[in-house]
Specification:
Elements: E1 28-29, H1 47-57, E2 62-63, H2 66-69, E3 81-82, E4 86-88, H3 93-106, E5 110-113, E6 130-133, E7 140-144, E8 149-152, H4 158-166, E9 170-171, H5 184-190, H6 197-200, E10 207-213, E11 219-221, H7 235-239, E12 248-255, E13 257-258, E14 262-270, H8 273-285, E15 292-297, H9 298-308, E16 321-329, H10 332-346, E17 355-356, H11 360-371, H12 373-380, E18 383-389, H13 395-409, E19 412-418, E20 423-429, H14 435-455, H15 474-477, H16 480-493
Parallel strand pairs: 4-6, 5-6
Antiparallel strand pairs: 1-3, 2-4, 7-8, 8-12, 9-13, 10-11, 10-12, 14-16, 14-17, 15-16, 15-19, 18-20, 19-20
């Protein structure tokens, strides 16, 4: 593996006067028009800045017109739009270094972005400035079959990474629903999870080492390519899940596993959604750890089937909720024995007849439908999605409490998620509610749902992050002392506050 990475020297271009940023309200605003960026003033980008960026990235990779920047004005968070002043697409670590040096000295805000599949507004350019895209940093640099590791740039699509290492008999199990389009760098920045987190863990459990460009333009290595590392503070784990607020990740070393040889997929229908959630904890008490355990209530399934024009489930099994349970390993006999134990147990929770996927095609059809639920909900209505997570045994209380809160506020909710690790995606749908009523009512319901979640020992986000849209709710989960500690960490990495400003922390902590 490479160990001869150059360490950047800080370059300071000539200073220039501060210019107060005026953000055009017709382009840099939320759809509801009431949430504004903080009062922090940055310098606006000038023609001289653009000329300098052209020398760094090349003319074809410096985008400035509204038509060209449209795709970078949004991620998958509701229907929000914030336009960058310029989009830069660097093709190397050295180019990222040069961009960061310039923006650090010129006090220009930088928002890192990858595939823009996030759901918390982390890639929104709420202060305009630079959108720094990692799409050209898209190479898998090394597959180390002896040490079961892969070294990759951040712009590699997660599914491409998985399929490439699978050709070598290796397994990268973290698979968000958007794995066919999301970038591995975004997964690291958000500490993504997905269905198989229940057995294998989330992104942080696989990251060994990172190459990071700091806002100052310095390049650091955060760890070592070893399975154990008790040397100093873990900068690697600090970077994972930092949502692009501490540095730009330009290279990632991940540990891998041998690829499981086989799997079994079960579909368990229940007449009671709460009973389905109660069954989840009971399965683990058997001493069995499924590789995935997904919960879908009836409305989620119906929306996904309509959206994909797929009938994956026969109408006679359309119960109130379903559990999609996967077991994987190397011996098919052992998996069938575990599946039989689970089937016997689920009878105690009012489970109807369990169906087994008989072929690879059936398994892919079921997983495709599950992965499309989020898109289907978004297609159905204006919505707000909350990414709550509680201890697994508390999942029934979270579900029933959420339904009661939404009913009290007159809001339709659709719930699904990773039941095996207590991660419930709660979608609030606007339907025909008037705009003003929707904003007020939805916010009140969300606060109550988060308060319930915290009271059950949970927290605000399991895998989507805080970003822009959840930052106001951070005081529900953290004390002011804890928020201040986080802010001081942010300031240590980014003393001028140029990197992804406005994210994670509530306005009073910005």
């Amino acid at each position: 593996m490479r160990n001869d990475y150059p360490r950047a020297k800080l370059y300071l271009p000539p200073s220039r006067p501060k210019v107060k940023r005026q953000i055009p309200t017709d382009r840099h605003r939320m759809t509801n028009g009431k949430d504004k960026p903080s009062s922090r003033n940055f310098n606006r980008i000038t023609a001289a800045d653009i000329a300098h960026f052209n020398t760094i990235c090349g003319l074809d990779h410096v985008l400035t017109t509204a038509d060209l920047t449209e795709n970078y004005a949004h991620d998958e968070t509701e229907n929000l739009r914030y336009y960058p002043e310029v989009v830069l697409r660097p093709g190397s670590t050295d180019e990222v270094v040069a961009v960061m040096r310039h923006c650090h000295q010129a006090d220009i805000p930088i928002t890192p972005c990858g595939a823009r599949t996030g759901l918390s507004g982390g890639a929104l350019c709420v202060h305009g400035g630079v959108a720094l895209s990692t799409e050209r940093l898209n190479k898998i640099l090394l597959i180390d079959e002896d040490n079961l590791q892969v070294v990759t740039q951040p712009g590699v699509i997660t599914q491409v990474l998985q399929e490439t290492v699978a050709e070598c008999g290796l397994f990268y199990p973290v698979d968000p629903a958007s794995r066919g389009s999301c970038f591995i760098g975004g997964n690291v920045s958000e500490n993504s999870g997905g269905p198989r987190a229940v057995k294998y863990g989330v992104t942080k459990d696989f990251v060994l080492n990172l190459e990071v460009v700091l806002p100052s333009g310095h390049v650091i290595r955060t760890g070592a390519n070893t399975l154990k590392n008790a040397t100093g503070y873990s900068l690697t784990q600090l970077m994972v899940g930092s949502e692009g607020t501490l540095g730009i990740i330009t290279e990632i070393t991940l540990r891998l596993l041998p690829h499981p040889k086989t799997n079994v997929l079960l579909l368990a229908p229940f007449d009671s959604a709460e009973k389905a959630c109660e069954a989840v904890a009971a399965i683990f008490k058997l001493g069995i750890t499924p590789s995935a355990m997904e919960f879908m209530e009836r409305d989620a399934i119906r929306l996904a089937e309509a959206y994909t024009d797929t009938r994956a489930f026969a109408s006679d099994i359309m119960a109130e909720a379903l559990l999609l349970i996967e077991l994987d390993g190397n011996r098919e006999e052992s998996l069938h024995d575990e599946a039989a134990q689970i089937a016997d147990l689920l009878e105690n929770f009012g489970c109807r007849e369990i169906l087994f996927a008989d072929s690879h095609e059936q398994k892919e059809k079921l997983w495709h439908l599950r992965r499309k639920v989020g898109e289907a909900v978004k297609h159905a209505s204006v919505y707000k999605e909350e990414d709550t997570v509680v201890p697994r045994f508390r999942l029934p209380q979270l579900l029933s409490g959420t339904k009661a809160i939404c009913q009290r506020h007159g809001i339709r909710s659709v719930c699904y998620g990773h039941a095996g690790d207590g991660n419930l995606h709660i979608n609030l749908l606007k339907d025909t509610m008037e705009d003003d009523q929707w904003e007020t009512t939805a916010r009140a319901a969300i606060i109550e749902i988060f308060q319930l979640t915290v009271s059950l020992g949970g927290t605000l986000s399991g895998e989507h992050g805080i970003g822009w849209v959840q930052r106001d709710f951070m005081p529900l989960a953290f004390s002011q002392i804890e928020l201040n500690l986080m802010q001081r960490i942010k300031s240590a990495f980014d003393p001028t506050g140029i990197l992804n400003p406005g994210k994670i922390f509530p306005p009073e902590n910005q």
